[in-house]
Amino acid sequence: MELKKTFGLFDALNIGIGAIIGAGIFVVTGIAAGLAGPALLLSLLIGAGISAFSALSFAELASFIPKEGGGYEFAHELVSPFAGFIAGWLWLLSNVVVGAVVSLGFASYLAIFIPLPVNIVAGLACLAITLINYLGARELGSVNNALVVLKLFILAFFVAFGIGAVKSGNFSPFMPNGEVGVMKGAAIIFFAYSGFARITLISEEVKNPKKIIPLAIILALGISTVIYMLVSFTAIGLVGHEGLAVSGSPLADAARSESNNAAFLISIGALAATLSVLLTTLLGLSRVSFAMARNRDIPEFFMKLHPKYSVPYNAILAFGLMMTIFAVFTDLTRAVAISNFASLLYYAIANYAALRLKKPVFPRVVPVLGLITCVMLLFFLARDAWIIGSIALLAGIVYYHGVKVRHVFHT
Questions:
Q1: pTM
Q2: What phi-psi label fits residue 70: left (phi over 0), alpha (psi between -120 and 50 degrees) or beta?
Q3: Of 196, 194, 190, 228, the residue nearest 59 (C-alpha)
Q4: Does residue 157 lie within any of the structural domains?
Q5: Three-state SS sequence of the chain
Q6: Is the pLDDT of residue 345 over 80?
Q7: Is 286 a domain residue?
Q8: Percentage of the chain with pLDDT > 90?
Q9: pLDDT class for 410, splitting at 50, 70, 90?
Q10: Where residue 411 falls among pLDDT bands split at 50, 70, 90?
Q11: Do 129 and 275 form a contact (C-beta atoms < 8 A)?
Q12: What's residue 190's pLDDT?
């Protein structure tokens, strides 16, 4: 049984935008504003520029290797099976944490309507999107398309509503924490942009993937960058970076400074945004683990397809449960830092894989800059991210050499 080719350009573009415009814009911008101040706008541009190098690498890789699994498959074929395994391992770690972060963002905005314990609601949200993923890619694509259109409409309203009330005093001092604060903000903001690669994880389910996937990646990142800049400028102008930094629902609080009704509408947009990211996060987790299991890098349990829905149902259930547990027992800031550590290493490996292409589409300098900038951003992450991320990386290395290699030797 094979995966079905379900997604066209509109679906692929919405998966990319849905992954980028989510918890990053509705939640993480608050954390980044606390680090960079009003210079968050510079952090956004730096993060977008760094992401662009990696996005172009992914675009050309996807055109050469249109297989399920994204960076895992690229590294596996172009670098080595071990490099591929580490890329996949890091991506799985990163996105289990992403799922927890996004579900916490969803719960924080839902609390505006229904005052329930945030971590419990986050866990229930993870269980709900597990069910939607289980029912098949066509159903997931339809739900995601509707959520993306809704959240873009509401973000357009936020900018139109708030930009006239922007206070110039909220942009001074522009860089209260200096250049280091700007770079720390960019390192966190990379979390927000990193969803562009989500499209490559479903290559075998996209119609005409060699054409559609590169186009969808570039369009998704470009559209999302413009939206991030407009929304962040408006939010800072309404309440200042200090107000955003202490909020779990920064855009709603920015809108509330002018109108309670606007805050409610923004919260609805945030719920749609975070749900769409949750949907595509679990979609990616199940497809990467499917690809890894197909190559015998992890147990074959993860590659079994449902006889009716043609989805890797064991992977969906297993990672849906992991996301649920992590959401109940984690906190937002630490989770974002850990996810960024794993994501940056994953993208560094993928950029190196792009350097191995014999006939690249773009100049060699593109993946070189992608690799260098990903490594550079690692040094602006918190110590906790390095400690926990390094332990997880070491665990992956031990698993590969202690379990997989021994299994191959005995067979």
A1: 0.79
A2: left
A3: 196
A4: yes
A5: CCCCCCECHHHHHHHHHHHHCCHHHHHHHHHHHHHHHHHHHHHHHHHHHHHHHHHHHHHHHHHHCCCCCCHHHHHHHHCCHHHHHHHHHHHHHHHHHHHHHHHHHHHHHHCCCCCCCHHHHHHHHHHHHHHHHHCCHHHHHHHHHHHHHHHHHHHHHHHHHHHHHCCHHHHCCCCCCHHHHHHHHHHHHHHHHHHHHHHHHHHHHECCHHHHHHHHHHHHHHHHHHHHHHHHHHHHHHHHHHHHHCCCCHHHHHHHCCCHHHHHHHHHHHHHHHHHHHHHHHHHHHHHHHHHHHCCCCCHHHHCCCCCCCCCHHHHHHHHHHHHHHHHHCCHHHHHHHHHHHHHHHHHHHHHHHHCCCCCCCCCHHHHHHHHHHHHHHCCCCHHHHHHHHHHHHHHHHHHHHHHHHHHHHC
A6: yes
A7: yes
A8: 10
A9: very low
A10: very low
A11: yes
A12: 75
CA atoms of 123 and 119, how far apart (whole Å): 6
Which domain range does residue 237 map to?
A: 9-357+378-400
Burial class, 271, CB count within 10 angstroms (exposed 0-12 / middle 13-18 / buried 19+): buried
Statement: residue 409 has pLDDT above 60: no
Query: Which CATH number does the domain housing residue 26 bear?
Result: 1.20.1740.10
- The total domain count for the chain is 1
Q: Name the one residue in this structure whose structure tokens are 């049984």.
A: 1
Report which of 255, 231, 191 is spatially closest to residue 28, judged by C-alpha positions: 191
Is residue 405 domain-resident?
no
Domain assignment of residue 373, yes or no: no
- Residue 23 is predicted with a pLDDT of 63
